[in-house]
Amino acid sequence: MKGREVRVSGVLQPTGSQDDQLVFARLATAQSLLGKEGRISMAEGAALCKDCPIDDLVRQISEVLPGAKVMAIQQVVKGRMETLAQFRKISYGVSAVVVLVGSLVVLVTMMGSVRERTGEIGVFRALGFRKSHVIQIVFLEAGLVSGLAGIVGYFVGIGATKLALLFFAESRSISIPLDFGLAAGTFVLAVLVGLIASAYPALLAARLDPNEALGAL
């Protein structure tokens, strides 16, 4: 490490916290490796008590170390949790917009498909297909296309996230495993959105007059 030989005493089990990215060393060794002999950039203390007067502890430490920035971890954690809550609300809003836009896309696509296939629908009705059969055909097409789009979107999202981590993540050890439960949920949600959005086009297709539909051929 930086031209010096160091001995690894052990490797800790991962905990899922930021400590997994840390290297623990003797203070003198760390100061020497970093070129900061006699200096300390940060010190973390723990108070083993219940309902501790955190604010008083921060004030007392600040009085003892006037040149240091003293911060309570509890306040930092609270701030981070509030930030995460804001991001969660934003993500829910973005997800709602994406679902709405996807529904509109499916609606417009199926409306165009029904108009283009008016003659085919007329042939189906002339051959004895009932209105329910026509609705099932439209739903089947919409469900298949929506489900395929959901699966493709899931894998594209995973790939885009991994690519973004290469540029923005502080650690290269972060990985995003494939979650087949999430993939299944994405598939089901995509199919449901497709079926709901195609309900109106399916009704229009079922209500087409067979004679008028055959006239479109």
Account of the 3D structure:
This protein is an all-alpha fold and 217 residues long. The protein has two domains: 18-72, no CATH class; 86-215, no CATH class. The protein is 65% helix and 0% strand. The chain has eight helices and no strands. It is elongated, with a radius of gyration of 31 Å.
Q: What is the CA-CA span between the terminal residues? A: 78 Å
Order of helices and strands: HHHHHHHH
Helix/strand-derived class? Answer: mainly alpha
Mean pLDDT: 81
State the total count of DSSP E strands. Answer: 0
Structurally, the number of domains stands at: 2
- Which value, in Å, is the CA radius of gyration? 31 Å
Count of helical stretches: 8
Shape descriptor = elongated
Helix content: 55-70%
Reconstruct the topology from this structure:
Layout: H1 27-34, H2 54-64, H3 73-116, H4 118-126, H5 131-168, H6 180-197, H7 199-206, H8 210-215
Write a brief caption for the model.
By secondary structure, this protein is mostly helical.
